[in-house]
Protein 1
Amino acid sequence: MIYEMTYQLRVSNFSEGLNWYKSLLNKEPDLTPHEGFAEWELLPQCWLQVAEGAPSEGSGPLRLGVLSIEETRNRMINELNVDYFEIFTREDVPVKWATFTDPWGNRLGFFEYKKEDTFKTIIL
């Protein structure tokens, strides 16, 4: 049985990476157990780890659910200098999604449910 998960991203400059991810996630890390390593609990028992090191080529994307993908994209562009990225949608898929990279080449993304009722059902 799986009861918890972690996803680790690596950044070549930890100080810059820490600040970038604090801004992305709008919060301080939940844990900083040692130098060059920070963790955020994104959801109960689901952790994002940022560690100093060489990024893994071709990994990801790690996609995070948001309420407004367009507003989130604008914030990423304005606050974190992320290049403009396209938002995709398909008639047979219940979400809109997008992928971008952090300054170290890690692939990240967002998704938004097309119907508000879908999000409410998942949260309740």
Note: Residues 58 and 115 are 31 Å apart (CA to CA).
Protein 2
Amino acid sequence: MAKVVLKDCYIEVNGVDFSSHTSSVEIQLTKDEVETTNFGGAGRERVAGLKDDSFTINFQQDYDASSVDDTLYPLWDGEVEFQVVVRPRSTAVSSSNPEYEGTCILLEYQPLSGDVGSLSETSVTFPSQRQGISRSTS
């Protein structure tokens, strides 16, 4: 079985390819835990509730036109929904290169962060809306 070393992830936010401006990515798939314990059982019972998925991406900040800040600030300021797409490799979607996609909203944005002499980076969490994050292999 092949192991995956992340060297060539594809990361797209609102139609803009940020693969060359990101240093880490995380996809979090979560469902609320709804307790259904009742008097008839000897232990706790649970069912899966609503999805609460998100993408967390660490961007290497760039203020040029059509780059990181120029794309993210209007999404935060305009309070609009947009697509986020992530694949382990930049190649075509396949069973060995699944695509994760979600309709997201940007609720927090830190446009400037860093120490003297360091690379300016910003970690952004994109919570998904309604259906959560989907996975496609074709």
Note: The chain has a mean pLDDT of 96.
Protein 3
Amino acid sequence: MEEIDPWWCPAWPVVWQRAYSVARMWWLELDGRVDWAQLPEETVFEGEQLGRWVVAQRAGFPGLEQDQQDLLTAIGIEEDPELVAARQAAEAKPKVSRADRFAQGLTALARFVEREGHVRVPRPHKEPLQVTAAGPGGQESTETVHVGLGAWVNNQKARRAKLSPGQLAQLAEHGVEWA
């Protein structure tokens, strides 16, 4: 079996192998004249989100198995240092804890109630909120985040059995009737 297809049972997910096969078909159909860096991200071929997949491979190149890198390189898909750096920067951002997300949602709710005078937040509403973030070198910066407040309030209601008595009390202080 290995002689017929050395990649018949790869160590990586079959989803990756299927997307690679589609990329290779694209490459073969264009006689190897593909500028992968210029491929629009919304490109779909054979039902596969080829453009998005290629961007993900170019951004995640260092994390791939050597054999995967070799397969990609053989059809002209190479690492993009800018995409790799952007991906690493995004992954390096500290994750926001549930307690912090709750506090952020509560702050957004307080602003909404202060401005609107009620807690009936429309489901699609996003509340702009200024937050302090730690930047490179420990420097703090202020950035605006748009809290999906309508969804957050609905989620709190749906999960109210899992909220602590303190969290329920905080919601009730802002006029949330079900808390």
Note: The longest helix spans residues 98-116.
